[in-house]
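Students often ask why inverse folding is considered easier than folding. One informal answer: many sequences map to the same fold, so there is more than one right answer. In these notes we will look at a single instance of the problem. The structure comes first.
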């Protein structure tokens, strides 16, 4: 008796495959003797498509004969024996369905599994063990091979999808990096790795390595050594080590530090040497993977652990992603800002701030911004403003415009700075800047107060400012002009005459100009392009009104809603508003003015009270509806408004009111009745007068003269006793107990009323409106002057891209979440094509672009990409994210993710030609054409 050496062990998949093969030849039952090791770990009986299959082991011919006796008790009997075929007598062979001893050949079974007639030549490198392992791991799969040919691509795509969720067609470095960040998915890979045959695992590694191109060896080395969950964390470390990145220029480090970290990284990868190209590409892929908003915390934690483990802490400031990188960037910015305070040269500070903003944790301009970032942004803005002239407006009209377009933004920045920085150096330099600007700002309040004393108490004739009591007549009423009909006459004529255009008047009690800036910006940002801020054609300044004096609710709001100077509460406001509507032919049926109690009568699960929604919806009978929001005024009593990021969501009812107005086509007028100043707790309160109000006192015989920080106002617009009052001017002055904020005084923040007109959709031409320009003053963001023309230098072979940091006036600030922070020469005349050439088309037709497009396969077509690039080229390299979303046909919320995908296509060899700064998309056109070989 002889024993066949090295026979494979059979498994359930192999048994099923043998039975399936015979059934395909029309055998309904039978006995199979299989040359295999006489061991079996599976069940004694298997159900296969309704038939019973018994498996028996037979280490001898006698055992084979014994197993044959079971052929009448099951549909199929499979006998596993290590006997040589020559040992089997004719009496045994005649009972075998095949008439012979069958071999465990996995290839026919594997082809049968995939319904393939053929297989590619190098399938699993023709390893029988790998084929058998694939049969086990893919048992029961249904995935017919395309064209009837089984390939490694199809086999491993099916295996990866089934066993560890790696989807077909996701075999680029970017998709693998995204896949690797899901711990639940990578845990499934680990389970498969531990249970599959090592031969099949090696075949998988070889296959995926070839699919990933130049990064394949690196990715597989990480996979082998510590698992796929470390692909992105270690990639973020690799981004710190490379010498060719822009960050390496901005944050230089000792050569010994870089060499040490690089060596430790290579040791961790099994002593695999890494090229500069691999480090850059790996770092870019990792940065792109974490460019979204839903990055698992564990990924960043592992990356920071790797930074410490590889002794790369001195390099961490180079990262736009790692949380621990923000602090050294803030420290560098604070140092540069301190130098700029003394030198007035902001270039270094602007570039240091660009590095802060580029960090994914900066969240500039949002409620998620860390205190250091919020204070840093405010301090830099105020330093820019400090270096500019402070105007001396002639008359109240110009003061109102000056405050809305400039000084209200100063107040905004000062409030942001008062949040306080955690970094001591930043806090110190910010205090120097804020103190200097506040001194100038305080002088502006006093100059305004002198104008208020001479002209604010009396109504001027023609050429005077817009008064709060005239807002209904001069702002609201013109917006109710009926729309013309199709033939030029009045359209929508009802029984009572032409139908007025509907308006919703929203009065945010206590809203200052600085708060209005944020609220309107948020409304446009969140609801664009539906809502647009407008102003009346011919107006060259933002709309603003002068409050009634003193600047308190019972005077100013009552005057607003009655259309004339008046004092009173809600009853007076209701009756006065109704009379104004009646005088102007706008009287409606039902309630048209809603105060806080009305608005708060909201039914469960409804955004608006039924009575309010009914009124807003009723444009036929209630053309003008007004709502009073008390959220800001309430906040001054209960919470600290300093540093608050005001938005439409900060108001309980503003968002649903905007939605309801949009649904029925109402123009929205957002206005306040007075502003406010905030309590900064800098000095004890100044207690004067009879404490009748926080910010004004009676001009009584006991203390009739104003101090230098007060102003005396006299006239019919002064609605307190005897048409005389003394108003506080300096924001530190108050006459009553401590609160978070106050109103009633004569400062710009209290007396200037912001008036914003918001239109949903296309502008109604009959209303005489035009879209208002962006309200931010020039100093709010970095200057974006056109670059100085320069002669193009000779192009050296294989240049290493480096970021230069020019003066702030010629280099825009890079914004948050810039994926690969590589600055480049700005697009100058070299980006201008001669007449008749389409250089964008040349880019799209270049071999490099074709390769990039084929490798990353973005969902955007080449014509769409070309349209985006052309629009950016026409716009001097910048395009709003909202416009980019329109061009790419994606939702605005997905714009940044879409740009990240295109950046992967266009940014090659570590050179960034396309990026976004959080609000705009930026194109380095000169580099684009150079990189893709398009001649000037």
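Output (designed amino acids):
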């Amino acid at each position: 008796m002889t024993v066949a050496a090295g026979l494979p062990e059979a498994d359930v998949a192999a048994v099923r495959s043998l039975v399936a093969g015979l059934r395909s030849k029309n055998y309904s039952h039978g006995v199979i003797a299989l040359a295999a090791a006489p061991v079996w770990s599976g069940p004694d009986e298997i159900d296969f498509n309704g038939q019973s299959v018994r498996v028996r082991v037979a280490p001898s011919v006698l055992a084979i004969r014994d197993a044959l006796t079971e052929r009448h008790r099951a549909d199929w009997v499979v006998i596993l024996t290590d006997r040589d075929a020559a040992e089997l007598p004719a009496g045994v062979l005649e009972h075998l369905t095949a008439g012979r001893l069958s071999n465990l050949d996995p290839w026919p079974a594997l082809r049968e599994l995939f319904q393939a007639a053929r297989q590619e030549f190098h399938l699993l490198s023709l390893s029988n063990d790998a084929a058998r392992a694939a049969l086990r791991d893919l048992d029961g799969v249904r995935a017919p091979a395309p064209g009837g040919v089984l390939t490694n691509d199809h086999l491993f795509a099916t295996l990866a999808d089934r066993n560890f969720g790696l989807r077909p067609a996701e075999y680029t470095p970017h998709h693998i990096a995204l896949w690797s960040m899901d711990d639940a998915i990578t845990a499934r890979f680990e389970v498969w790795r531990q249970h599959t045959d090592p031969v099949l695992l090696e075949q998988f590694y070889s296959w995926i390595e070839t699919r990933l191109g130049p990064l394949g060896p690196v990715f597989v080395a990480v996979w082998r050594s510590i698992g796929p969950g470390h692909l992105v964390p270690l990639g973020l470390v690799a981004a710190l080590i490379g010498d060719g990145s822009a960050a390496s220029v901005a944050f230089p480090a000792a050569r010994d530090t870089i060499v040490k970290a690089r060596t430790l990284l290579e040791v961790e990868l099994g002593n695999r040497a890494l090229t500069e190209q691999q480090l850059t590409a790996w770092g870019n892929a990792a940065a792109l993977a974490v460019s979204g908003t839903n990055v698992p915390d564990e990924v960043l934690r592992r990356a920071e652990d790797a930074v410490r483990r590889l002794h790369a802490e001195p390099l961490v400031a180079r990262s736009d992603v790692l949380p621990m990188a923000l602090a050294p960037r803030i420290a560098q910015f604070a140092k540069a800002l301190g130098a700029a305070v003394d030198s007035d040269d902001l270039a270094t500070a602007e570039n240091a701030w660009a590095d802060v903003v580029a960090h994914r944790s900066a969240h500039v301009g949002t409620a998620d911004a860390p205190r250091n970032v919020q204070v840093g942004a405010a301090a830099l803005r105020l330093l820019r403003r400090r270096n500019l002239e402070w105007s001396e407006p002639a008359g109240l009209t110009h003061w109102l415009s000056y405050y809305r377009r400039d000084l209200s933004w100063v107040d905004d920045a000062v409030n942001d700075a008062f949040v306080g920085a955690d970094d001591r150096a930043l806090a110190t330099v910010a205090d120097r800047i804020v103190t200097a600007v506040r001194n100038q700002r305080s002088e502006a309040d006093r100059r305004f107060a002198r104008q208020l004393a001479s002209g604010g108490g009396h109504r001027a004739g023609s050429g005077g400012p817009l008064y709060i009591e005239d807002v209904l007549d001069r702002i609201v009423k013109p917006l109710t002009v009926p729309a013309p009909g199709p033939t030029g006459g009045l359209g929508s004529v009802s029984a009572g005459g032409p139908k007025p255009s509907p308006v919703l008047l929203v009065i945010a009690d206590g809203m200052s100009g600085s708060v209005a800036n944020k609220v309107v910006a948020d409304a446009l940002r969140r609801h664009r392009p539906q809502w647009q801020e407008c102003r009346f054609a011919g107006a060259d300044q933002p709309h603003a009104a002068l409050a009634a004096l003193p600047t308190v609710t019972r005077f100013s709001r009552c005057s607003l809603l009655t259309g004339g100077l008046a004092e009173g509460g809600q009853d007076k406001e209701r009756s006065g508003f109704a009379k104004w509507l009646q005088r102007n032919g706008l009287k409606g049926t039902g309630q048209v003015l809603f105060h806080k109690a009305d608005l708060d009568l909201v039914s469960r699960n409804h955004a608006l009270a039924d009575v309010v929604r009914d009124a807003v919806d009723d444009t036929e009978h209630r053309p003008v509806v007004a709502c009073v929001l008390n959220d800001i005024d309430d906040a001054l009593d209960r919470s600290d408004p300093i540093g608050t990021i005001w938005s439409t969501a900060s108001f309980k009812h503003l968002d649903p009111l905007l939605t309801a107005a949009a649904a029925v086509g109402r123009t929205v007028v957002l206005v306040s009745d007075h502003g406010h100043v905030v309590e900064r707790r800098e000095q004890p309160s100044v207690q004067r007068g009879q404490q009748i109000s926080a910010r004004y006192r009676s001009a009584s015989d006991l203390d009739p003269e104003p101090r230098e920080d007060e102003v005396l106002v006299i006239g019919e617009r002064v609605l307190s006793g005897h048409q005389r009052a003394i108003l506080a001017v300096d924001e530190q002055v108050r006459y009553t107990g401590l609160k978070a904020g106050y109103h009633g005084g004569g400062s710009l923040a209290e007396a200037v009323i912001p008036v914003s007109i918001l239109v949903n959709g296309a502008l109604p031409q009959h209303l005489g409106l035009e879209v208002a320009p962006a309200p931010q003053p020039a100093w709010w963001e970095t200057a974006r002057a056109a670059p100085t023309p320069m002669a193009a230098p000779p192009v050296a072979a294989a240049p290493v891209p480096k970021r230069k940091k020019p003066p702030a006036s010629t280099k825009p600030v890079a914004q948050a979440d810039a994926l690969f922070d590589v600055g480049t020469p700005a697009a100058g005349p070299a980006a201008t094509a001669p007449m008749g050439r389409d250089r964008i088309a040349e880019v799209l037709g270049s071999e490099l672009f074709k390769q990039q497009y084929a490798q990353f396969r973005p969902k955007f077509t080449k014509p769409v990409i070309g349209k985006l690039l052309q629009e950016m080229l026409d716009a001097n390299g910048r395009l709003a994210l909202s416009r980019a979303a329109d061009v790419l046909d994606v939702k605005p919320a997905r714009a940044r993710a879409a740009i990240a995908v295109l950046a992967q296509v266009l940014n090659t060899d570590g050179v960034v030609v396309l990026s976004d700064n959080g609000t705009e998309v930026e194109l380095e056109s000169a580099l684009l054409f150079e990189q893709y070989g398009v001649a000037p």
